[in-house]
Model the fold of this input.
Amino acid sequence: MPDFVQQTSDQIKDNYNIQGQVKAGAGAGILVDTANSDTANLTKKIDVVIFCGGANDVAKNKSKMALRHIRNFTNRINVLILS
Done:
């Protein structure tokens, strides 16, 4: 197990909540809008959101717009972005 995973696990222990959502075919704007309402009570102090999306925007040649949506979302919360 990598060190950062072990350190994170040691910090959070059993005090965490995991939620997942799938929105097939949705662009980053829709994902961010949904995430904004679902994460309204989260803070940068202890919360993390894992964001995996944007492929549909890239396929439609709208990657700059997708990045803008994601950047606006990441300003208020800790976000891990996956591709």
Notes: Residues 63-74 form the longest helix (12 residues).
